[in-house]
Amino acid sequence: MSLSNSSTYAENFSRHLRSLPGGSSTGPIAVLLLTAVLLVPGSLLLAQTGSSGSSNNGSQQQQKPQQQQKPPAQEEAPAEAGGPQGEVNPVAVPKKKEIPPEPPKRTVKNPEGMPDYTLHVNVPLVDVDVMVTTKNGEFIPGLKKENFRVLEDGVPQQITNFSQAEKPVTVVMLLEFAANHYAFINDMLTNAYTFASTLKPNDWVAVISYDMRPEIQQDFTQDKTKVFGALSHLRIPGFRETNLFDALFDTLDRVDRIDGHKYVILISSGVDTFSKLNYDKILKKVKATRNVTVYTVSTGWLLREYLESHGMINPGNTMPGTQDLMDYLQADNEMKTYASITGGKAYFPRFEGQFPEVMADISNSIRNEYLLSYHSTNPKQDGSYRKIKVELVDTGGGPIKLNVNGKPAKYNIIAREGYTAKHEVE
What we know:
The chain is of the alpha/beta class and about 425 residues long. The protein contains ten helices and 18 strands. The relative contact order is 0.14.
């Protein structure tokens, strides 16, 4: 039904009411009937009709207002909330701020196929070769792990690995071969041949000679005949310079790349004449090279004494054709330092008959050692130098008393003086 049809229908119905006896289109009954009829067509017509009726008969009928309900968002304020006592008007009470729930923790998972990793601090293992000998240089066997105490910078360390057995060795013979010390070459070759004869089938050995620069005569081999062949090629030296510092640095740099413990046997006068490096730098290199023990054998002592007695060696080196005595004294001191820092020995044989004894002692020393290992209590990898001290103790931790061949014996402990820690960037 449309709005126009509803209006026509209302007019017809009103006309019909007026035709009735006592009928009136404006009476209350008529209004009620008309309202009831028009409830169906729509609210718009109902509103118009109700408005007309109320304007015509406002004095005759009053409608009671419906009781108003309080809005759901308002309520009376309690006294403790700050509202006045007994107030009936609606007062808005602010709602508490809702705290949002914490978001769930995210669990980061590695992509499929990627393993999980755990970070570990790797404290390098420090190896210390220790020789315990009598005052006569004889090796003292039979000591146990409990008889050794290792201190690093004064702090006791826990020994994790311990062994004592004759073992194969890895050796480099570094030989001075220069024209300025041509008279010493016989001493050098005699010592080198003597040591080569002590080699065993499982030993590895290399031969390097030097004058102005180092030269590899024989790379590492287990074939003793190749070692003898390399020594036989050292006949006529070319240059007069003896650049020991450069040669020793190069040798240490090469052996540092080889696993396991290595030995360098330096047979030389010890005099350096024209190296690019100075003594401080080579000393730092000796301290920094790990798992290397240096043995030094000085050459030319017999000839040096002969030259000195004939005035060819003098303190001031003022005469042509003479050598400064201070050069040899300084060289001897440096040879001792190389050995002591690394836990080796320095030898100064004065007679040719002592050469076999010296080489035999070196061979026995490098094969009969106590190998101690520990993880440092100082985990810092800062490239610092740490001092090492090895002591002998009894099982109770007190001073030990050693007996050799049933007799009390005094002993010497020979071990490296320290090591340079790794740097974190290495």
